[in-house]
Design goal:
It is built from 2 helices and no strands. The protein is mostly helical and 64 residues long. It has one domain. Helix 1 packs antiparallel against helix 2. The radius of gyration is 15 Å and the shape is elongated. The mean pLDDT is 93. Keywords: Membrane, Transmembrane, Transmembrane helix.
Length: 64
Amino acid sequence: MLLMRIFGVVLFLIGLWQFYATWKYHHFLTTKGTDNAFSPLALYCGLALGVIAFLLGLGLMISP
């Protein structure tokens, strides 16, 4: 039970860090830009991974 809550906190923090990293990459793309065709895919996948980790961590933290 305690181990699930610890994993929940870790996943929650990973999700928050992923949101921050995605925001920083978006800021980099809008200011400096790049000619890489896969940049939007990396942006969306990073956001999706952040949402999944955030919600899974939140679910593990509040589970009884």
